Amino acid sequence: MSTSPTLASVPPTVSAPTGRIASIDVFRGLTMMVMVFVNDLSGVHGLPWWTYHAHGEWNVMTYVDMVFPFFLFIVGMSMPIAIAGRLKRNPSYIALWRHILSRSIGLLVLGLILANASKGDPVRMGLSTHAWALLGLVGAILFWLVPARNTRRPRIFLGLRIVGFLMIVGVFAIFRRTTHGAAAWIDFSYPEILGLIGFAYFSVALLYVSTRRWLWAPLAWFVALTAYCALNTAHIIHLPRHYLLYYWPFGGGASASIVMAGVVTSIIFLGKHRWQTLSQKMWLALGFAVATLLAAWIMAPLGISKIRATPTWCLASVGACVLCFMLLYWVCDVKGKTRWAFFAKPAGENTLLTYLLPDIYIFLSAFVGFRFLDGYFRNGAAGVVGAILFTFAILAVSAVLTRMRIRLQL
Q1: What is the DSSP code (8-state) at residue 19?
Q2: Is the pTM of the predicted complex or chain greater than 0.85?
Q3: How far apart (Å, rounded) are the C-alpha atoms in residues 69 and 81?
Q4: pLDDT digit string, tens, across residues 138-169
């Protein structure tokens, strides 16, 4: 894995694949499935503590606390492939950065819509908060709808994008909330999960794109981001929360470190380096996983918490991500066995729409006053059954929409 100081003379570390990577789609789909399940389960009462997010003051993490890191890890795994593909189609770095910036802003816009959906003042806006959120999400679907290949009516898709853009602008323009007795606009303090992903994606892109021709750079950045996260957790560096993201997208370093770990893993399995046999890739990945788990144990005195975004939480989650991907890579890409994941794969191929579907259902059911499921599936074992049924219903709808070629892409 030798490096060279001359950027132009070294090939990129990851080349654009000719087709989709099955293990990444399955990994993303399974992560989406668990995310939908735990989000719905969070509203169920009477379950053991480990079925929810651990409280911020606890030094413990549950499986629920690992779902967000898995999603961040997948963002990182996809980044080298997506960037290589874009540069292969268009070698302009200006066009690449325009895409990265627009994608980051798009995730932030969606996050702010979801984060502010419950904060609006219906009297000041002239419509209910549920209707406001639905208009915003429908606008997002129209704007980011992927046109069908070889479509004979491109003007229709252009028209839908214009309508969607105007709807998004409109919901932001009319939004009003009441704070301290006065009217206020959008609350930017917490950009929701999608916004946090957008900041993490942008910050890691800043590092990766500028150094992508040096093979060891992502690993070095991962170590640096982890150290930075540890310094923040130890209060050696003091940073305010949330608002700082708009000026410093790295935040406390936790999310960015997990995304960068995904970049490292992607390069291990798909990069151009001297270790190209399956056993070599597996040993490299196993070594990376063991190193992160060992580092998590060493940093345990700093605490382990998703809410506090401690380095132990990050490193333990990364280790689990790498081990899970190793298994999926061997099953899906080496052995070619993907049919077992039929229920989750469409969600992995159409992730953004799948992510929005539960929120669309929640806002729509609240808007029309449909409360049947809330009364029967919100406690104990019945709640778990309800969450399972809801999850597979969302996956089924996602699969149908994906087959109908209704896809979203930022």
Answers
A1: S
A2: yes
A3: 19
A4: 999 999 998 866 666 778 888 999 999 999 99
